[in-house]
# Entry
Amino acid sequence: MMNRQQIDTLVKKMNVDTATNPVDARIQQIVVRLVGDLFQAIEDLDISQTELWKGLEYFTDAGQANELGLLAAGLGLEHYLDLRADEADAKAGITGGTPRTIEGPLYVAGAPESVGFTRMDDGSETDKIPTLFIEGTVKDTQGNIIEGAKVEIWHANSLGNYSFFDKSQSDFNLRRTVLTDTEGQYVAQTTMPVGYGCPPQGTTQFVLDKLGRHGNRPSHVHYFVSAPGYRKLTTQFNIEGDKYLWDDFAFATRDGLVATATDVDDSTEMSKFNLDKPFKHITFNFELVKEVDQVPSTEVDGRRVSA
Ligand code: MBD
Ligand code: FE
# Structure
């Protein structure tokens, strides 16, 4: 058995003292810490060689399946980062604004852009699932409307699948960017999303099964909301009534991010929306916080798909 000091000495001897070329100090710090923590876990849990190699094979498989982002969501790593960001905001005295929640692994950049109104669905499921109108405003924390705010929206189809990742859907189906109009408003006509479930034979569900956990998310709609001079907001609403609303495998549902879909079946209301069949309606407003110095940016870099 090695104690932590012996572990740290060994890790340093192998990964720090051996450096002969310029060092990235930050990466070195993180690698040394993570390797030390791993050695410590091997000691504490008496992890066998077979278990260790199985673990590495698992990451190979998860990476090849492009499921590491999904795994990060499922193990709560992404939600944990939100909790840390909330704490940093509170410490900096930032209050108000729509709560943040995880981006998830399924955003695609480059969606079609319009002002005020957008139709998000390609019409292929119109007869299969209810139409959904989403309406809302973007305001600052003082209640002033923000015109020209960029509202990026993406969600799943009737099978819980997202275009681009699901090649059976048309390009950018259920993905749009709307700029708020002179009233600070955005309107999106789309179809009711159905909750996501991890691929049952996939690498993420494999681990969830070992943990006795399900891999389901409630019906939800993702957003990036941004405007010059304001902090970028990454969030979602999750829809009331879904059995997974407060049992989300990715922990994204939060107070303030629950939306109620109401039924619109009154003919004068229907005609206001140029529709001749009943539909669902959700109002979801946003409040953006002014950009401030000395606080970590809410802009998160990462390798995102751009189609
Ligand atoms: C999703 O749709 C999602 O939002 C997350 C966080 C993970 C998997 C699928
Ligand atoms: Fe999602």
Notes: The longest strand covers residues 131-140.
